[in-house]
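Q: Please design a sequence for this.
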């Protein structure tokens, strides 16, 4: 199998993974700890399909984790439109994206950032958000102004 997806790519393919959110998730639910745990479900066949669609050879799957572009904790869905093979190593490993997700979740829970804006930021470029929040110590206003990308909305 030919590997189509660049192994060091830290952003998903926007055609395959534009991001998907549920219209049914509210800020009130996001503010509840562990509300997303009830929304998780086994995804073995979905994982296989996502990795195949990205052209990743099965022998390399251990180098990736199946990630929700918009995490369930911020209203993301289990749709294939929201799943991508995130590299575990490299310049922008998955652990950094987790930090971004937690920082945005905290801001949404504290009413410092609208939920839809947090979702759009993750769909556009989570690494740029990381740079702003953790490296530049700058606010997100520039990124928010440049964020025109609307996540795909899916009811689950």
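A: Design:
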């Amino acid at each position: 199998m030919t590997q189509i997806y660049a192994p060091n790519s830290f952003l998903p393919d926007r055609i395959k993974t534009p991001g998907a959110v549920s219209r049914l998730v509210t800020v009130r639910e996001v503010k509840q700890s562990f509300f997303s745990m009830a929304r998780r479900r086994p995804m073995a066949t979905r994982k296989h399909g996502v990795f195949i669609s990205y052209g990743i050879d099965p022998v390399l799957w251990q180098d990736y984790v199946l990630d929700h572009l918009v995490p369930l904790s911020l209203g993301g869905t289990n749709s294939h439109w929201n799943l991508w093979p995130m590299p575990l190593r490299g310049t922008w490993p998955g652990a950094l994206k987790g930090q971004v997700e937690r920082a945005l979740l905290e801001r949404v829970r504290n009413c410092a950032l609208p939920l839809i804006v947090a979702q759009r930021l993750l769909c556009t470029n989570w690494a740029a958000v990381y740079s702003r929040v953790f490296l530049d110590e700058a606010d997100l206003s520039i990124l928010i102004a440049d964020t025109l990308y609307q996540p795909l909305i899916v009811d689950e």
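Q: Thanks. Anything notable?
A: The chain has a mean pLDDT of 81. Residues 20-147 form one domain.
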